[in-house]
Amino acid sequence: MKPTSIIFLIVSVLLVIGGFATVGVAKQLAASEGIVLTDEASEDGSGYVYTYDYSQDSIGRITVNVKEADINIIGGAEKPYIELVNFSEGMYEFSSTNRILTVNNNTDLSSPANIASLAMSFKGLRGFVNYYNLGGLPKIVNIYLCDANPVKIVDCTAETGNVIIEDCDTATDYNVTIGTGDFAAENVSTTSALNLVITDGDAKLDDCDITKLAAELKNGSLDATAQFGKVDASLTAGDFNYNCYGILGLTNLSLFSNVGKITVDGVDHGGYLENNDVPTENIIDVDIAAGDINIISMVPRG
Questions:
Q1: What is the DSSP string of 242-262?
Q2: Using CA atoms, how far apart are residues 92 and 84, in angstroms rounded to an integer?
Q3: Which terminus of the chain is more solvent-facing, meaning fewer CB atoms within 10 Å of its CB: N or C?
Q4: 174, exposed or middle or buried, with CB in 10 Å at 0-12, 13-18, 19+?
Q5: 211, exposed or middle or buried, with CB in 10 Å at 0-12, 13-18, 19+?
Q6: Tens digit of pLDDT for each residue in 146-189?
């Protein structure tokens, strides 16, 4: 590392440490004088919210990458916008360029780069105090989708946190990666794909119509009441439960469980079942190392 870079980092660290050391004293002095030192959370308890309306940006892709936060994707909004709840300045990057809206955050101050980022964004004592106050509050990213401004791709990555998609009816590809946390989708319809990767957590889909589901779960189960055109699922330790809106006889099956059993419409097939005789590209392909596969035919989705 260059000497100038080392000096810059040292100065940044000193600024941050000095700022936090001042917080306690400043808050006490401000309180004694009846002065409000920090921005207050909204009265409804929703926290500190930054809102960005992207209706004029012609956004084709939204990418969110967070270290520790929940992500909610909500359809049916009157206008498209995104909310960042309880994110302090200097600890997230927000950009809208080339039709891509990007949100990145890292709340880890053990990294010199992140300390430098906080120092560079310094906007007075209020900035330090707001970071201090926001440290223990849950962070949330809310993405509101609008039918009039469809987004082709939504990428969501959370090292720790839950991801929810609800009430979405646009031809959008959803790419979701979760380290530790759960995934849920309700009333979601897309002629595109849902690509799901979870290291430690469960997935639940309810009342969904998705052309292609690709799911990889390391430690968790997948439960779905839905209609899928194609399914490609791989689970290391967990069950695959699928209540299928449709006729299974019109879908090819490739099912394998190394340690577990396969049940289709109440019939036990042991650990392996394959049927590739149906003249269609639709297939349910599930491979499980340890867990059961249970698939049930239901009345087609209305």
A1: EEEES-GGGSEEEEEEEES-E
A2: 10
A3: C
A4: buried
A5: middle
A6: 999 999 999 999 999 999 999 999 999 999 999 999 999 999 99
* pTM exceeds 0.90, yes or no: no
Label the pairing between strands 153-160 and 283-290.
unpaired
- What residues does 51 pair with on adjacent strands? 83
Q: Can you name the residues that pair with 203 across neighbouring β-strands?
A: 183, 222
8 A C-beta contact, residue 83 and residue 50: yes
82 vs 103, 172, 188, 191, CA distance in Å?
Answer: 10, 17, 19, 23
Report which secondary-structure segment, H or E, holds 112.
helix 112-120
CA 261 to chain CA centroid, Å, is 31
Please determine, looking at this structure, whether the domain spanning 49-106+141-298 carries the CATH number 2.60.34: no
Partnered with residue 103 across adjacent β-strands are 64, 94
Contact partners, residue 192, CB within 8 Å, separation at least 6: 171, 172, 173, 174, 211, 212
Retrieve residue 55's tokens: 């209706």
Three-class secondary structure of residue 28 per DSSP: helix
Residue 252 pLDDT grade (very low, low, confident, very high; cuts 50, 70, 90)? very high
How many angstroms separate the CA atoms of 104 and 159, rounded?
A: 12
